[in-house]
Structure formats: structure tokens, C-alpha cells
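Run log, item B.
One chain of 302 residues. Sequence copied directly from the ordering sheet:
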Amino acid sequence: MTGEGVLEGNQLQLEIFRRKCMQMLDPDDINFPMEWFLKLPATQTWIYDNLFDSQTVPNLSYGPYAFRILKRLISGLEAAIEDPEEDEISDNLVNCFAELLVQKSTDEIDCVQEKRPVTYTIPIIAEDAPTVTVLEAPNLLSSKGDTGNRTWDAALFLATFLSSTGRHFVQDKSVLELGAGLGFLSILCGKHLGAKHVLVTDASEAVLEIAWQNAELNSVEDIVKTAVLEWGAPDIDDILRDGCSSVSYDLILGSDMLYEPRDFPALISTLQDLLSRYPKTQVLISSAIRREETIESFLLAC
């Protein structure tokens, strides 16, 4: 079988590898291509074209993360090549690695506060699987404790549900997201799921500024709007008026909001305010279960 034939037969392996890299997962959590497959020229060309070509894939064309991925790939290639006269490492990959090596020391100084585009692909096996790209600074978590600077697993699980069996919740509906952070779910609803209007809310103005940038990055700024909303705030009418006064919301979304029990009274107060204004609205909340008693206390408080 030709290299192109082998490549086609293992396309799914490469596509999953690409998606995980674009999501910037820890390299230790990624299954790299098998060495015999990795050393094929067609495989190396595909990896360069779809991950490291700065002309077409800006997300991973620079930075410490790209360096870590490419270092693992180069090590795998060196281990796989038995006869240097028959097999060789792609010049494009070698040159890219050299450039990243030069950038590495400078980038590591700035990478804590730098926001990088991270692309999330909904786990559907299809060439046109929905993607959302958001600017994230996950390293700020360790330095400032700001949980709004990254996308959490609960949002990804809710996105998968909404993109498959739950699409009817969003199609042609007006959506309000609470504690939206960077706006991943809201952007997905506006970009791929047919929402007619989406309001991104969060208590942090700084985070909402990034959410708005993310809306522009995904070309949904005509559908997705932002508004500062602190749970328990008494002026919710003014906040909703700023978002869009004529909208009656059909769906309220929230993900990974059930972290601190001390926040539950304010959150429930806001939910009650919204449900009193929009009695026909539906509420979908997704949360990681870190402690079962935390979830139980929220359900009891409701």
C-alpha cells in the first residue's frame, strides 16, 4: 500500500491527534501517532500542514506549547528511523522546530499572561464538526486564581449535548448564559446551533471584554452580546435592558457554576428573577461533580 493509502486508512487517528493539539491538552494526555506511521513522508506532511504551517494554522505555529508537541514528534521520528538513507525527518518539521527553539526562552517569559487562541472541536466524527476558537490564558489560574480565563470540562460536555441530542433547545431560540467566562458555549450557540440571539453574562468586565473579542474572532458579534451580571444583583432589569430590551429568553445556560456553596443563594436569587420574567424559559446547568454534597446542597436550596 502507498504512503497516501496508509494515510487515508489512518485519517481518524491523525484527526483526533490534531483536535487534541488544537485544544492545547497536556502532551502527556495525547496519543501520538505510532512510530511506524509517523515516519511516513505523507504523515509528516499532513502533520506539518495541519498543525505547524503558520500560514494556515496560526494557533500552534508558535510558542512553548507547540515546542513541546514538536519535540515529542521529533523524538518519536528519531526512534522510528532505522535507516537514515531510506527514511528522514521532514525538512519543514525540522525547520519549524529550530524556529521554536529560538523563540522558546522569550515566549516562556510572557506565556503566563499571554492569551493564546485555543480551538475546541465538538467530538463528532465528521470533517465539518463544529469548532469554536477562544482566547485563553490558563496559566493565570495559578497566579491570580481567575477561573474565567479558560474553558472548563463542564462547558465541553454541555456543548456536546447541545450539538447532538439537545440541538432543539437552541435552534431559533434566544439564549442567556450565566457565569459565561470567555463565552465558549454562547459562541457555539450563535455560530453552529442556530440561536437567534445570545447574551453572555459574567461578573467580570475584564473577562467579558475577552468574550467579546472571542465573539468577533468567530464572526458572531451580530448575534452574541455581553452584559455584566453579578448574581443576586437587584438591578437585573437594567442589565437585561442593556443586553437587549426586546428579547424574551427561551433558554438559560450555565456550566461549572456549582463550585462554592456560599455563592448558591445569589445564584438561585438570579435564577428566580429570570424565571419570574421568563416563566416559559428552560434552564440547563452542567457541572463537574467534585463533591456530591455540594451538588446536593444546591438541589436542596432550589
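Observations after the first pass:
- Residues 141-145 have pLDDT under 50 and may be disordered.
- The first helix runs from residue 3 to 9.
Flagged for discussion on Thursday.
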